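Sorry, can you check?
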Amino acid sequence: MIKNYRLVQEDKNTHAFGRCTEKCGLEQQGYAEEEYFFEGTANIYEAGEDGERRTLYQDAPYVNRMIVRRPRESGKFSGRVLVEILNATSGMDIDRMWVLTWRQILRNGDIYIGVTSKPSSVEALKKYDIARYGELSWKNPVKRRLPAFLEQYAAGFGAYTSETEAGLLWDMLEELAQDLKSKAFCPGGMRAQQVYMTGWSQSTGYMIQYVKYFAYHGREHAPFDGYFAGGGVKSLLPGLNQYEMPAIAWDAVMTAVREPFVLLQTESENHALGNETVKTEDSDETGFLHRTYEIPGATHDSDCSMAEWYHGDSDEKRMGIYLTFPGTEAYSNNYPMQFVFHAAYQKLLAWAEEGKIPERYERIHVDMDGRNIRDRFGNARGGWRLPVLDLPVCTYYRYCRDLMPNTSGFALYGCRYPFSAERLKSLYQTIGDYERLVRENTAQAVREGRLLAEDAEECVVFCVREAGNGGLGC
């Protein structure tokens, strides 16, 4: 049970890790950014062979933190809250779903809450500012060491140690949603009407496990009104506690979810990381509301979500972690997948709040071995396409060759190979002709629900700029 929410004060000597007030111009757009500590007790669970959860330990105390971005004026609040399970893969809190969706969140007037999701991120926060974050705690109440093979696995993923327990997260998430709904927690005095869960990459695994073991435990509907997942690495799901091995891949195939669940996958995940074996079919059936949208051209890490976002970031530098393009290629992947995230987020909200069933778009085309089938330009066929891919000026790849190779030698940050000026001219003649084609294609994308009208002009500008950078002239 969450017993207390406490606003953490800002001053000239300290600020919340991961703040984006200046980066996003929040104040100019009528938004406030705040950090809260919340403390309470959580149970630790284990998964039963019957698909049910069992309580392993009760009432373990914890202190955790969340970052809140909300309208300053209650009259601008939409009534909905989006709760992100902050990604922990890099060793620190990453708010990737905010990064890809924040413009639409602000346009809506939604509240965003990012929750620290692993003990490893807590340790990173203490390294960043021990005076501010020293009291955060995910202590393990079970007095036994991890088996050696699990400790080795945990060390590889930077997830946990014998002294901490990652499984405290489940109750934190559920009770936060319940408190938002019951008005026990009202950021800025604003009362939530709808609460949604979101998460990126490994956090998608948490979302799948939550739906399976927690959402409908003794009740018909979950406290969350829907789920917005991205970049799902579904080949391994987290255990309910750190003594459990990660769930095997086939458990990631969803078969039931009573609130809408929308998953966006880039080229990096649609056939890699074991995901080709655990694809979930789209469904509109009562009790199974699911969409997977695959985005050709986009990759797990890209300029819009990594290099551009963290460029010159003082918090990142202070942590000693640099999230930049790691490849040997000349050009990193700059596919503007944020436009897809904006549109897909709106589809989720319309589905959950208005019962408006979203479109189904074809998946990326793959061969018998699960590899992407490419068109004459070298780009993946099928999927949720934007004008930048219908009228390409480059070839997008789902990976880059890593400067500091891991076991595979590849990184999930994609790259691109621009067309020559001669090829651009043969395809599109002049920059004016190209802009005309892009505007026609953009209007069609808006009509088909693949692009929001609010993003249309920015999409055109992006396409024309890229063509101009490639040498397409008048």
